[in-house]
Amino acid sequence: MLRPSAHEDTFARDHLPAAQDWPDLLLDGFNYPDRLNAAIELTESMVAKGFGSKTALIGEDRQRTYQELNDWTNQLAHALVDDLGVRPGNRVLIRSANNPAFVACWLAVTKVGAVAVNTMPLLRAAELVTYVEKAQVSHALCDTRLLDELLECQRRTSVLQSVVGFDGTAGHDAELDRLAIDKPSKFDSVETSQDDVALLAFTSGSTGEPKATIHFHRDLLIIADGYAKEILGVTPDDVFVGSPPLAFTFGLGGLAIFPLRFGAASILYEAAAPPVIGEIIARHKATICFTAPTAYRVVLQTVENHDISSLRLAVSAGETLPGPIYEEWIAKTGKPILDGIGTTELLHIFISNRIGDHSGSCTGTPVKGYEAKVIDAGGHKVEPGVTGSLALRGPTGCRYLGGDRQTEYVRDGWNICGDAFSQDSDGYFHFAARNDDMIISSGYNIAGPEVEAALLAHPSVAECAVVGVPDEARGSVVQAHVVLAEGVQPDKDTTKELQDHVKATIAPYKYPRSVVYVGNLPKTATGKVQRYRLRSST
User: Fold this and answer.
1) Which of 447, 522, 448 is nearest to 483 (CA)?
2) pLDDT digits 0-9 by tens, 346-405
């Protein structure tokens, strides 16, 4: 039963899936008041708790305390309401690279009771039109350096009424900044319901067209009060760093919600690409790093050149963490690296390793509040060691905007997230593949990521991705798309060497019968390999 909404524009609530299609929500232990605004909890409440003078956001040119962040977001909120006419429930698109201004705009949008639609700076006009029309976005806030594509989007659709630029640099000299500069630093935030919609998060599109997922105000706090508190043990002394975009929920949680919920600091460098993360950690004494497995492989190439002794743990998600990268990270840094799995549909990580309990090729156990099991095609729980589909339920769950494909993801109250896993007799979960990445060849089930891990252990392989391709004799065969290390020749001798290496590392029938050498792998902005593009190219 939903609580009374504070939204004047009820589009988001009106387009929730039918109640009978929701997953079961396990909310015990996550008790929030009926009226809850997540942005207040991350700013104003933190100032009230005594964090006002503590650093909240570290940009490339300046730092902001919690008091300064609260004042800044209040002034922006006034501009949104007084000058731009944003009303509770309106969808407001935000377009920017990772910087403090992005976080400030997101918090301001949330304070006024609007629904944030955070988007990647690399999206083009046609893609932005899809987002705008699916979410019926009426207003957009955009870093002025990225306005062209958004203005072209506005020309192509009648839905988007207002596009206003902000300055993502320390200068803060753009239209939105000028509107906000003389506004009061106090703002009466909208008293939204805990189950009012706060965020429409689009899936990354690693398997095709992105879908909009619906998240409530309480959801934004649940992922902090569950995963960040239990698994990361965040304290006010922590300093977060990472490369995942704030536009995706992995980055929004790891670089905004988690630090702000516990009085910690977040480093928001637009240039926080994997090759320079080691340098940033050393400069700011960062303690927690968030990024994807492919990025950690790049970080490892430079990490020995910097003092990263301040780092107490690294978090890997987005794709499974291959065993060779895990082993190399532990060997070179001595720091825990925690593999975890989460989805945009459930907002953040729901199965994870722990600081004192982690190992290679293991995803761990469910985070506080979540239950998980491995099921067969009929929905029945399988025996330990048997690979099947991962089923989840907990305090967050899938709600697709408009209910599109809802019943594909939610069955019998469980979220079926499209991943093939096994669970061992000790209760630990082990990733096999995305369900659509399982390759059936001559009757054998072959998990692409297992073959990828074997290939990555060879020094000639810089990156790789494995897919199944049709074969008349075997149904499908394993095909490896390989980015070679510098100086290695893409010839028949290399192919045979790699094939023999895989045969010697895992069961011989799993070796790649086809090897394609490429200069790079197609990826989403979060670092996920788009295997569907590799399959479609063959």
Assistant:
1) 522
2) 999 999 999 999 999 899 999 999 999 999 999 999 999 999 999 999 999 999 999 878
Q: Which of 4-13, 166-175, 190-199 has the lowest mean pLDDT?
A: 166-175
Cα pseudo-dihedral 104, 110, 111, 113, rounded to 10: 150
CB atoms within 10 A of CB 155: 11
**DSSP secondary-structure letter at 379?**
S
Would you say residue 107 has pLDDT above 70? yes
- Alpha carbons within 13 A on the beta-carbon side of 494: 18
CB burial class (10 A; 0-12, 13-18, 19+) of residue 469? middle
d(CA 300, CA 314): 12
CA dist 463 to 8, 86, 300, 325, 453, Å?
A: 49, 46, 13, 11, 10
Q: Residue 6: CB partners within 8 Å, gap ≥ 6?
A: 35, 88, 113, 190, 191, 192, 193, 196
Question: Once rounded to an integer, what is the mean pLDDT over residues 309-327?
Answer: 91
Best CA proximity match to 449, nearest among 326, 354, 335: 326
CA–CA separation, 527 vs 371, rounded Å?
27
Q: Rounded to an integer, what distance in angstroms lies between the CA atom of residue 383 and that of residue 277?
A: 42
Question: By the 8 A CB rule, do 469 and 495 touch?
Answer: no
Q: In Å, what is the CA distance from 76 to each residue of 112, 186, 416? A: 10, 11, 39
Query: Which residues neighbour 460 within 8 Å (Cβ) at sequence distance 6 or greater?
Result: 484, 485, 488, 494, 497, 498
Strand partners, 95: 119, 142
Q: What are phi and psi of 255, to 5 degrees?
A: -115, 0
Is residue 480 within 8 A of residue 466, CB to CB? The reply is yes
Name residue, tokens 């979960």: 429
> For residue range 482-491, what is the model confidence (pLDDT) as tens digits?
999 999 999 9
Predicted TM-score (pTM) of this structure: 0.86
CB count in 10 Å sphere of residue 110? 28
Q: How large is the average pLDDT for residues 517-532?
A: 84
Q: Which residue shows structure tokens 């391709």?
A: 469
User: Does an H or E element contain 297, and which?
Assistant: helix 293-299
Distance CA 77, CA 453 (A): 48
As a whole number of angstroms, the distance between CA 32 and CA 29 comes to 10
Two tokens at 273?
């690409």
Q: Which of 179, 100, 172 is nearest to 139 (CA)?
A: 179
